[in-house]
Every structure is written in structure tokens, then in C-alpha cells.
Amino acid sequence: QVQLQESGPGLVKPSGTLSLTCTVSGASISSSYWWSWVRQPPGKGLEWIGEIFRSGSTNYNPSLKSRVTISIDTSKNQFSLKLNSVTAADTAIYYCVRDRAHDYWGQGTLVTVSS
Amino acid sequence: DIVMTQSPDSLAVSLGERATINCKSSQTVLDSLNKDYVAWYQQKPGQPPKLLIYWASTRESGVPDRFSGSGSGTDFILTISSLQAEDVAVYYCHQYYSIPWTFGQGTKVEIK
């Protein structure tokens, strides 16, 4: 059974860097899937942040591209998100997701940007 | 960016009745191999979205057959043929045809 689990700080200061890791179990991150991050501000809709392939190739949402880095560690079966220069507008539940038709989702982790 | 617009924003349907959600894309999401790059998700409070339908009409494994997807090109529909109490949720359409992948704003389904 494929499972994804997000981990990382739940509170980040404004202008700081949000860092999250997604640990994948039940599937190899080296398989032929793209692995994405999606976020959802509390009570609002879904926004795709970006994706990474096993090769390290990435695609980002242009609205966030200047602030986002997604990386992959195949030895740990993990991929990670870094979002810098955060503001309150980046407060959201962050999900890691498998595939472009997002078939498996992590439970999500709430990240609050506040001083 | 491709904009996905859902209608209605919310609907209330009696148990056992049909619920229909529309999703319109701002440009085609149909490729040359005749595949529509649209998925539908169900999200219940406090849970992540759950994939229901992909390629516009292919039901994900384990999803009840009362859920069906249809449409092509720019117009898509999610139908719940006989609404059950456990179907109360927000439903999202999603296009994965052109980066950035985008979602509809969501449709809240309630029991009348």
C-alpha cells in the first residue's frame, strides 16, 4: 500500500524558509511517476506548487517559481520542498502527492507563517 | 494558465437523487491521442483529497460505480447517480494537460 507522509516545522517566521520532506513507503520514488507538492490555505482551494521526477527534473508553478526548490533523495525514498521568503499568504496545509493525476496523497501538514 | 471553472459552487441533493457538477476549462485539455487530462477529487473535512476519476471518465480502483465522469475538450461533468450520506464533501476538478496543473474552485455537496 502506497503511503506518503509529510514532515517538517509547523511554524515558520515571516521572511524565513519553509522546509518539508515527504517520505514515501510502499512504492519506490525511483519509479516512473512525478512527485508533487500541493497546498491548500485553510478553508480554501488547491494550488499545485511543483513536481520532481526520479532524474531530478523539476517543473514549478510560475507563480511560485522564484521561491521554490524541490529535490529528491532516492536513497531515502524521499522528496523535499523548500519555499523561501515566506509571508502569511503561504500559510496552508501542504500535501505531497504521487503522479500527475494525483492518485496518492499524504495526510497533509499545516504550516503557519507567523512571528 | 488553464482556468478550471466549476458550477455550481454548492448544491443540496436529496438522498438517492442525482448530483451533477460541471467543470469548464479555459482551453482544451484533449490531446492528439484523444485523451482528456482531467481528474476529479473528493475531499471530506480534515482529510486530503481522494482521486475519484482520471482521464475524464476512468474510475479509480475502489471508487463506487455511482460516481462517473464524462465530457471532452473543455466541458466535463461529475455525476453521482444516487447520493449517499457519505458523499457529503467538496469536489474538485483538475487539469494535468498543461503546466501549471490547476484545479477548479470546488463544489460543496450537501444533503437536502
List keywords for this structure.
heterodimer, A: 115 residues, mainly beta, 0% helix, globular, B: 112 residues, four-stranded antiparallel beta sheet, 11 strands
Residue-averaged pLDDT of chain A: 97
Count of runs of 4 or more consecutive helical residues of chain A: 0
- SS field, number of helical segments of chain B: 0
Rg of chain A is: 13 Å
Extended strand count of chain A? 11
Task: Note the run of SSEs of chain B as H and E.
Answer: EEEEEEEEEEE
Strand segment count of chain B = 11
Shape type of chain A? globular
Task: Give me the secondary-structure category of chain B.
Answer: mainly beta
Mean pLDDT of chain B: 97
State the distance separating the first and last CA atoms of chain B.
Answer: 36 Å
What would your notes on this structure say?
The complex is a heterodimer of chains A (115) and B (112). Chain A is mainly beta and 115 residues long. Chain A has no helices and 11 strands. In chain A, strands 2, 4, 5, 6, 9, 10 and 11 form a 7-stranded mixed β-sheet that branches. In chain A, strands 1-3-8-7 form a 4-stranded antiparallel β-sheet, with no helix packed on it. In chain A, a hairpin with a 5-residue loop joins strand 9 (92-98) and strand 10. Chain A is globular and about 40 Å long. The mean pLDDT of chain A is 97. Helix content of chain B is 0%, strand content 48%. Chain B has strands at 4-7, 10-13, 19-25, 38-43, 50-54, 58-59, 67-72, 75-80, 89-95, 102-103, 107-111. Chain B is mainly beta and 112 residues long. In chain B, strands 2, 4, 5, 6, 9, 10 and 11 form a 7-stranded mixed β-sheet that branches. Classes of the chains: A mainly beta (115), B mainly beta (112). At the A-B interface, loops of A face strand 5 and strand 10 of B.
